[in-house]
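The passage that follows is intended for readers who have already worked through the single-chain material. We present the inputs for a multi-component assembly, then the predicted structure in tokenized form, and finally a short commentary. You are encouraged to pause after the input and sketch how you expect the pieces to fit together before reading on.
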Amino acid sequence: MELDDLYRRVIMDHYKNPRNRGTLDEDSLTVNLNNPTCGDRITLQLQVEDGIVKQAKFTGEGCSISMSSASMMTEAVKGKTTAEALELAERFSAFIKGGEAEFEELEDIEALSGVSKFPARIKCATLSWNALRKGIEHQNQ
Amino acid sequence: MNVQAIREQFPILHQQINGHPLVYLDSAATSQKPRSVIDAVSRYYEMDNANVHRGVHTLGSRATDAYEGAREKVAQFLNAASPQEIIFTRGTTTALNLVASSYARSVCGEGDEIVITQMEHHSNFIPWQQVAKATGATLKFIPLEKDGSIKLENVEATITDRTKVVSVMYVSNVLGVINPIKEITAIAHRHGAIMVVDGAQSTPHMKVDVRDLDCDFYAFSGHKMCAPTGIGALYGKKALLEAMEPIEFGGEMIDHVDLYDSTWKELPWKFEGGTPIIAGAVGLGAAIDFLTEIGLDEIEKHEHKLASYAYERLSTIDGISIFGPKDNRAGLVTFNLDDVHPHDVATVLDTKGIAVRAGHHCCQPLMRYLNVSSTARASFYLYNTEEDVDRLVVGLQQTKEFFGHGIG
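Having made your guess, compare it with the prediction:
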């Protein structure tokens, strides 16, 4: 277990300079999710128009892995259809558990591959993605 | 106290984690188990396993003797008046829930008060919250000082003649503070309230005398004091336990069953429905023997020294915040490093073979009081040494270094 596998430069960059941190209009799709065992929490807001994610923003607090993952996720889903975003969330889940080695859409996300070697931290990485999934599935109902 | 000789008795401590010798600093979550406890549990299953109180055969008698023998050990360990006052439970949580569900729900009503503190573990928080909601009683909190300690004048101001139950933890699993239980009990009794003590973090580390404390109920878990998981006990004053109704029905707690009504066994069995945790009780008995032989006073002295040493050494780290009082502290130190999330601290330390806890420690209301979302905690037990503390300090310096500059 090498620390540099987990904390790559790009992860720390997203942690220290999160993209899309902030809030959208109150009428945007809003999901609150927390990780009850560790206290991490996220509020994800999505602005969806014509089935396309136009904007994604988040607030919350958590460790470097959860917050950088949220930053990367919001970057990745912008411009995608909700179906594509859901599929991305599915693939991320498989990827973070060590199933897939590559994540071509956004090379930043690939930097999270080291998390799979730290099973205790997988929940941190998937928090924001679970919020994404929950938000879109709720909207589709 | 010869710590090296004690360490020899804990097989788990002698291994490498991620290429480093293990430094286990998470005993407040669960302690490690000595060889004598592991052997007692194995021996029970290899030689004596049978159900208790039922069989007329030899194994049945051996199992019953072992189980009831463990109860006697617990009674002596806590200085209870009789083994009848010891109810075996799964642990502290089940024990506290038993008091809340059986005792408190029957005595509390509209206008009554239940008094706890904001430092309580969820196990000694939610059961009372639920009793208050179900009965219309008011939940009140003894205010905490800035460092998390309790002032008796605030206890005096909170408990009134309407208070039915006061429930406070003996030692905080986050702040390390040792609460003045004996004094709080006296105040509770003066107002006619009963006193419940969450002993999860005190029983493993210091001599506990329930008759000297004069508390009415006292709950603890075995797994934090060298015994297996899944076993713990509730001490209760006999008169109170006798007046209480069981909350679990079936199996061993039954006396006589008619079609439309039934009666219960006498204490302590009326609260122990189903087949009990026999091997767990045997392990708890062995753990009590182990701790008693070393001496609780010795253990407390050792941990107190370690905690003071750790507090002092950790205080020298730039950008660290340490929670809880400096003095009168039990064997744990809870802290945060500026700009590094506690989970990241715990992961970095883990790669150096050091196990600490990060999170809210099942104390969400206390985290809000401290104005943090989570913290890191190093907790000590009789097998920890000053070298362990030194390794922690080096690990934390490396953590700071790593998050300060050294990525990739």
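Commentary: Chain B touches chain A at residues 18, 341-344, 347-348, 350-351, 358-360, 364, 367, 373-374, 402-403, 407-408 (CB under 8 Å). Residues 323 and 392 of chain B are 17 Å apart (CA to CA). How closely did your sketch match?
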